């Protein structure tokens, strides 16, 4: 999967990833993550590694797209805003002024952030940017941010790729180069 220019990977920020987002959760929150991301809504075995299973589900486009789409307006606005930010991260003040969140109270924003954090969709991390180095910021795990960015790009280019020769050739070229790399 190509890494977007918004990706935290470009900033060499290793802590804003799914593994650390899931590691920060206690057992109750991990159970909530498993319930939310479980594609078949069937219980998993006690001996299974719940974090590894949830991490795999959170990197599957067929699972991620409908779960994120069904979040609701406020939480969807938070995720959409973070997708546009460098490194998929923003501080509280940036969130309060984000499109769709301008009229959101601090209490409602906190409730939405807690809901997203309990599902490992967002996480708190330290900001590596020079102007705010070390400040706590909210971030999408980089794998999730990259996947959502790719899904949005595919949705935007789907019609172009289907209707134009150039789009078809670009899509064919990408799929053949991905097959060679696999």
Main attributes of the structure:
56% helix; 3 strands; mainly alpha; globular; 3-stranded antiparallel sheet
Tell me what the structure shows.
With 182 residues, the protein is mainly α. The protein is built from 9 helices and 3 strands, in the order H-H-H-H-H-E-H-H-E-E-H-H. Helix 2 packs parallel to helix 3 and helix 8 crosses helix 9. It is globular and about 50 Å long. The protein starts with 17 loop residues before the first helix and ends with a helix. The relative contact order is 0.17. The N terminus is likely disordered.
Name the average pLDDT.
Answer: 79
String of helices and strands? HHHHHEHHEEHH
Please give the alpha-carbon distance between the first and last residues: 11 Å
Q: What global shape is seen?
A: globular
Low-confidence stretches: 1-5, 8-14
Determine the fraction of residues in helical runs and give it as a percent range: 55-70%
Which structural class do you get from the secondary structure elements? Answer: mainly alpha
Architecture blueprint of SSEs:
Elements: H1 18-23, H2 27-37, H3 50-57, H4 61-69, H5 73-84, E1 89-90, H6 92-96, H7 106-117, E2 123-126, E3 136-139, H8 142-163, H9 165-181
Antiparallel strand pairs: 1-3, 2-3
Helix pairs in contact: 2-3, 8-9
């Amino acid at each position: 999967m190509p890494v977007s220019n918004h990706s935290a990977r470009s900033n060499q920020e290793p802590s804003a990833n799914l593994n650390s987002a899931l590691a920060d959760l206690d057992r109750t929150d991990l159970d909530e993550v498993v319930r939310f991301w479980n594609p078949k809504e069937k219980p998993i075995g006690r001996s299974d590694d719940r974090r590894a299973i949830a991490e795999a589900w959170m990197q599957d486009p067929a699972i991620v797209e409908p779960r994120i789409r069904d979040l609701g307006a406020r939480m969807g606005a938070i995720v959409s805003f973070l997708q546009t930010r460098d490194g998929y991260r923003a501080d509280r003040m940036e969130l309060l002024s984000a499109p769709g969140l301008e009229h959101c109270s601090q209490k409602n924003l906190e409730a939405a952030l807690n809901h997203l954090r309990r599902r490992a969709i967002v996480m708190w991390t330290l900001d590596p940017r020079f102007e705010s180095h070390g400040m706590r910021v909210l971030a999408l795990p980089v794998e999730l941010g990259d996947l959502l960015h790719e899904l949005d790009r595919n949705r935007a280019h789907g019609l172009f790729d289907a209707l134009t020769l150039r789009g078809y050739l670009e899509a064919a070229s990408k799929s053949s180069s991905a097959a060679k790399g696999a």
